[in-house]
Design brief:
- By secondary structure, the chain is an alpha+beta fold.
- It has 3 helices and 4 strands, in the order H-E-E-E-H-E-H.
- The protein has helices at residues 11-19, 59-76, 99-114, and strands spanning 24-27, 31-37, 47-51, 84-90.
- It has a 4-stranded mixed beta sheet, with helices on both faces.
- The chain is globular and about 40 Å long.
Length: 118
């Protein structure tokens, strides 16, 4: 479980992380990772949000996918630079993916999305 200080909560925060200026994105077959860092967030703890649409599956599948991604990201939050907002978006193929597959995809995409952020 992610502590409250590490969670994106508002629609504006999600929009800023995904579409804001200076943001970066790295995508694969299972997930897409969006990263953004703004001056107003400098020095604050990193935050993570998840987008799992109905294209992934029914409510049970979506919630399972989100729980797995949240668990995997909780272990990776200490390695994320301060002030960075991340959005992890699940693609439809993630519904059939195993936890090790999602973990490997996160390990591959996270450094790419965070490249240039210190």
């Amino acid at each position: 479980m992610l502590p409250a200080r590490h969670r994106l909560r508002t629609s504006a925060d999600f929009t800023s992380a995904v579409r804001g200026p200076g943001g970066s994105r790295s995508g694969g077959r299972l997930i897409v990772v969006h990263a953004n860092q703004t001056d107003t967030r400098a020095g604050l703890p990193p935050r993570v949000g998840f987008v799992v649409s109905k294209a992934v599956g029914g409510s049970v599948v979506r919630n399972r996918t989100k729980r797995v991604l949240r668990h995997l990201m909780a272990a990776r939050v200490p390695g994320i630079p301060a002030g960075v907002d991340l959005v992890v978006r699940a693609n439809p193929a993630s519904s059939a993916a195993t936890t090790p597959e999602l973990s490997a995809e996160l390990d591959r995409l996270l450094p790419k999305a965070l490249r240039g952020r210190s």
